[in-house]
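User: Structure please.
Assistant: Input sequence and predicted structure:
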Amino acid sequence: MNIGERLREERVRLGFNQADFAALAGVAKTSQFNYEKGERSPDAAYLAAVASKGVDVLYVVTGERLSVGEGTLSAGELEMVEVVRSLDEEDKGAVKRLLQAFNQKK
């Protein structure tokens, strides 16, 4: 998987279409398309902009996911993670769909 494919994967994970994602990153839709096709590489300003919207930039660039250690989470975030971990797979799926719905309202 290349940078463009991973970038597309992150965009889809966050629930954005190409046009909306391009707008939040401050680029034209054609630039977003070219990034995802691997015809151009995004610059640092673009990567910083999408990182602020939840893109795992380390994953996009290297293919390795950012590890979220307990030391990087706030107390409230840690509590939510612990609750989610205690759920069965069906309930985890419901929570994920709910979070995605909230994220799309932004």
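The helical segments are 3-13, 18-25, 29-37, 44-51, 57-62, 75-85, 89-104.
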